[in-house]
Amino acid sequence: MNMQQMIIQAQKLQREINKAQDELKAKEFTVEKGGAVKVVVKGDCRVKSIEIDKDALAPENKEMVEEMVMMAINEAEDQIEKESEAINNKYTSRPGIF
After folding, report:
1. d(CA 45, CA 73)
2. How far apart are CA 68 and CA 89, in angstroms?
């Protein structure tokens, strides 16, 4: 493979990676906890929405609801991280790349 072919292959690979990363950023990850909390996080790790069931909003449930929100956000971020790693592995573990 000559240098020009390597450059073309690298540019193509970069476009594919950028496209996959853009798709990940636009994707929504939804996590529900305890039937009382629903969190939607975009692939760029920005929280899009948090829904809390009105029955869970009693003062005695405050700590439980806070914990469910935190757990849901963390789980969504874990899902995003795993998908991001899968994208990276897909493109960096290809045979014949450099």
Report:
1. 9
2. 31
pLDDT tens, 14-26? 999 999 999 999 9
Query: What is the Cβ-side half-sphere exposure of residue 68, based on CA atoms within 13 angstroms?
Result: 20
pLDDT tens-digit map of 5-51: 989 998 999 999 999 999 999 999 999 999 999 999 999 999 999 99
Structural contact between residues 36 and 55, judged by C-beta atoms closer than 8 angstroms: yes
